[in-house]
């Protein structure tokens, strides 16, 4: 039987231990905050003597629902080297006396080199920004073992024999909501299997080469699309800048109901949410059109240039939209006659960095939509 005195002592001991653990935990958290490593921006995939941190994220994460999801193979753009655990295939085959194609690893190296890639060692992969790693998971027929001395042999059965190689490519990525939290994300993969076990070594050798070939093809495809996107952005930017140079809409004359406007003129100065007085006449003409066109509904978009964080530009775009809405309603336009949409920096029309490019991206777009009377 335990005395009340012993219970009392145990209570105070447990209380003191809890306080001590809480202090230690608080100190550890405080130290963690002090010792958080500075994230540096990697210039390229040059192998260094120390592991490099991931590139720094934007100051503010994207909002849920605002993510721009893209095809998985596009993650291969800019890749300089990759670690492939082909040794698992080689060692697995050797342990089962499966003969692979001669110098299979050398052929893989050549395929990568021809595409401007380098086969990294496991240690080099760990020191490369993003840590690009291709994992090949071979599946050998059960009857091949491997066997230890004394193991019972599994009989070969042609009707239930299968071989497979499943491949997954993963890279390091910083979590949007917490840039200091890093994960390995699978962004590319493929799989092969067969029930024909007549030539296990030949089939596996062929699949390894086909997998690397498909990886290289997708990498080249990703680079090509990157160039095409850049050229498209440059062409769009040139078109925008040419349109911007056109004569500013005249202050006189009515605007047609179905007139679509992309106002390249600077309605807002940089970082400003107040409409420039010199551009009031544009909104005056728009207000007149909206009030005289009851069978149309107008979508008005506001955009921002990319020289700030996502959150800042989104808020800036929302405030600009509010300014336009307030101006139009003060002119007598019914609130139900139009809809404001703020896109921030998410839809740039030019990738340039000149002042005129930024001005073009700070655009206001008006789209009239015919509705039933």
From TrEMBL:
Superkingdom of the organism of origin: Bacteria
Residues annotated as transmembrane: none
Subcellular location(s) per record: Cell outer membrane
Main location: membrane
Keyword Signal tagged: yes
Record keywords: Cell outer membrane, Membrane, Signal
Protein name: Outer membrane protein OmpA
């Amino acid at each position: 039987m335990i005395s009340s005195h012993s219970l009392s002592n145990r209570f105070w001991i447990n209380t003191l231990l809890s306080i001590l653990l809480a202090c230690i935990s608080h100190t550890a958290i405080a130290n963690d905050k002090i010792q958080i490593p500075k994230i540096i921006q990697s210039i390229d995939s040059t192998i260094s003597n120390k592991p490099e941190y991931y590139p720094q994220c934007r100051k503010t994460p994207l909002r849920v629902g605002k993510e721009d999801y893209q095809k998985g193979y596009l993650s291969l753009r800019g890749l300089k080297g990759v670690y492939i655990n082909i040794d698992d295939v080689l060692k697995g085959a050797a342990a089962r006396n499966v003969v692979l194609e001669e110098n299979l690893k050398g052929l893989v190296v050549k395929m990568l080199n021809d595409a401007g890639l380098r086969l990294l060692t496991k240690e080099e992969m760990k020191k490369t920004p993003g840590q690009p790693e291709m994992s090949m998971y071979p599946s050998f027929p059960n009857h091949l073992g491997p066997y230890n001395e004394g193991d019972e042999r599994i009989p070969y059965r042609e009707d239930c024999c299968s071989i497979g190689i499943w491949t997954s490519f993963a890279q390091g990525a910083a979590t949007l909501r917490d840039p200091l939290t890093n994960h390995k994300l699978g962004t590319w993969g493929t799989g092969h299997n067969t029930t024909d076990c007549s030539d296990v070594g030949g089939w596996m050798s062929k699949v390894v080469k086909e997998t690397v070939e498909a990886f290289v093809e997708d990498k080249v495809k990703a680079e090509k699309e990157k160039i095409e996107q850049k050229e498209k952005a440059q062409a769009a930017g040139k078109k925008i800048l040419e349109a911007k140079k056109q004569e500013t809409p005249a202050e006189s004359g009515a605007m047609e109901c179905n007139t679509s406007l992309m106002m390249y003129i600077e309605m807002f100065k940089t970082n400003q949410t107040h409409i420039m007085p010199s551009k009031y006449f544009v909104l005056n003409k728009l207000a007149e059109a909206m009030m005289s066109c009851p069978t149309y509904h107008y979508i008005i978009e506001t955009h921002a240039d990319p020289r700030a964080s996502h959150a800042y530009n989104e808020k800036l775009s929302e405030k600009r939209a509010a300014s336009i809405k307030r101006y139009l309603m003060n002119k007598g336009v019914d609130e139900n006659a139009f809809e404001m949409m703020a896109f921030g920096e998410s839809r740039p029309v030019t990738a340039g960095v000149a002042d005129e490019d930024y001005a073009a991206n700070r655009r206001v777009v008006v789209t009239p939509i015919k509705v039933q009377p």
